[in-house]
Amino acid sequence: xxxxxxxxxxxxxxxxxxxxxxxxxxxxxxxxxxxxxxxxxxxxxxxxxxxxxxxxxxxxxxxxxxxxxxxxxxxxxxxxxxxxxxx
Amino acid sequence: xxxxxxxxxxxxxxxxxxxxxxxxxxxxxxxxxxxxxxxxxxxxxxxxxxxxxxxxxxxxxxxxxxxxxxxxxxxxxxxxxxxxxxxxxxxxxxxxxxxxxxxxxxxxxxxxxxxxxxxxxxxxxxxxxxxxxxxxxxxxxxxxxxxxxxxxxxxxxxxxxxxxxxxxxxxxxxxxxxxxxxxxxxxxxxxxxxxxxxxxxxxxxxxxxxxxxxxxxxxxxxxxxxxxxxxxxxxxxxxxxxxxxxxxxxxxxxxxxxxxxxxxxxxxxxxxxxxxxxxxxxxxxxxxxxxxxxxxxxxxxxxxxxxxxxxxxxxxxxxxxxxxxxxxxxxxxxxxxxxxxxxxxxxxxxxxxxxxxxxxxxxxxxxxxxxxxxxxxxxxxxxxxxxxxxxxxxxxxxxxxxxxxxxxxxxxxxxxxxxxxxxxxxxxxxxxxxxxxxxxxxxxxxxxxxxxxxxxxxxxxxxxxxxxxxxxxxxxxxxxxxxxxxxxxxxxxxxxxxxxxxxxxxxxxxxxxxxxxxxxxxxxxxxxxxxxxxxxxxxxxxxxxxxxxxxxxxxxxxxxxxxxxxxxxxxxxxxxxxxxxxxxxxxxxxxxxxxxxxxxxxxxxxxxxxxxxxxxxxxxxxxxxxxxxxxxxxxxxxxxxxxxxxxxxxxxxxxxxxxxxxxxxxxxxxxxxxxxxxxxxxxxxxxxxxxxxxxxxxxxxxxxx
Lengths: 87, 705
Known about the structure:
Number of domains of chain A: 1
Strand content of chain B: under 5%
Radius of gyration of chain B: 27 Å
Helix content of chain B: over 70%
Strand order of the largest sheet of chain B: 1-2
Radius of gyration of chain A: 18 Å
Oligomer: heterodimer
Largest sheet of chain B: 2 strands, antiparallel
Helix content of chain A: over 70%
Distance between the termini of chain B: 21 Å
Shape of chain B: globular
Shape of chain A: elongated
């Protein structure tokens, strides 16, 4: 079918939220790990970069995915591309 | 909705989705209650004197029967039920099933051990195996669910218009799933053998029975509900001993929150042990032994002759002196162990030098637990190089594990089973949450065990060492052995050899818990290995029956025939995998990690570009998969010792930028992307239908305006 202007807008918004969340993922994972040797100040007993790799990053990952699901489900409704209620 | 099927009966089916969910909640609440009662009864029986091997045996039989029972209850031959569990698995339950599917023997048994041995370096696995789910959520799960077929090669075949991409997908899916499943079955055999005292080979077949009854009868449907049950067992089994250790050491029952302080103590104690004169004494003895071997290596024939003469002389002397029979027998055994020829001697001396050199390192070769990367960025050029390569390899491994996670077919397949795109997205959140519970705990477990070893064990007289050391040394001396090297009667850290694989299994005993908890932990490990094996076997059998047979060979095959073929293949593949596992192939850990690099290079670029770039076409995708997989494979064959042996490569090892073979996907993934883009641009556009398919998957529900 022919996509409307609104459909294109929905996809652009999808791409931008994907990009933003991916950037956060990248910083938390690779940027912190790259500078890990310099980020060893004590954080409740842990060296900070050790804590990020063992716990902090994991918490951020769960939040990223949770936020993505919440945001996209709302976006679906806003642009009327959501599915019929299933439960 | 496509594939919804209401005709089946039994516990795991119901009319409406909400009634179904309610029923599931009820069933699994009862299940958890029943399971806890079962463990309590066993604990009471233990106090009343039930022998230990009985407890192990009861755990083994009860859990395998339980899984088989779920398999029987959810038996089906309906295609949608068999391949995708009828597409009505609620998000949270799919999350639990994915968690069990995902967490293998390597996660449950191996990971905390790796962290114990390598400290910060091991966190690459924690990061890689959780962060990959961000990629699953953002790039794949919702779109694959909207596409709504049965397998991953299905998507490649439809999106890239033809059987060539589908066929490449089948090959790649089988390559990564098979190497992975061999490792799981090996783990099953190991745990079953420990639990029951059966022989390793029988252990494999008992475990295999549990896997097969379940997936054979009910396919994805049975596997899903079994995996939920297995997740519950494995997470309970993992958490209890760690919480116990935390209470014992600190009085706080939240190990994840407080182990930072234990880590400080472990690091401090580690610094003390590095300088401890007794430790240095042991290290010096190992160094001297290594030097002895080095001396022998300078003239192997002479050293061999001398060894042989000395061993013969000892036997003769003892016999002449009428020494006790045991001493004579020991000397004769030593004589028999002398290498038979020069080639063997060269091997033995080289190995002896390497082992003793390794054991002479401070802290038994472990880095300081919280030390970030080896080497020193401000030190000598050699130290700087070590630091750079250590960091580069850490980042590369994290990258490969993450992208590999987002490309393993048995995980992606799970997102076909949710009722909607919305629930597929939510399901990824649940998946990572349930995985998080274990991964968040593993580093704590490693630190708490290390605290116990460093602060409690070291310095204990040999006569007072706890019983678990002797017990585990008796099971397998390559996993744990202690000997009083400097003969001072006191245990030093360097006098112990410990393999990572026993850390988790031995934790209950290290913490002084009753044996029933040890049985529970072993049952948890078994659940982890079985659930992953189930998912993998299903992936392989479906790739062959659905994609190869139905889509490529006989498109007119009836649904019931396809399911029947899939079941037959399942048995064949399972037996093949068991036959390989019985050989105890070397370097099983490497094979598992290799599966991640293969999956990453083969699938990730083609799947992601298939959704996000309409212009990607058949030739781009096909050549991209070949190039990505080929590069990864080539690098491993050229650099990994075991693969070099298999393919007879003798040229000197040349690492690219110092990257270890385990991270070969680092090269395969970008090459895969580049080839798909370049070749697609050089060849024609995909057809209009295909472009509409891409639009179709991007919107959860495209309503006509």
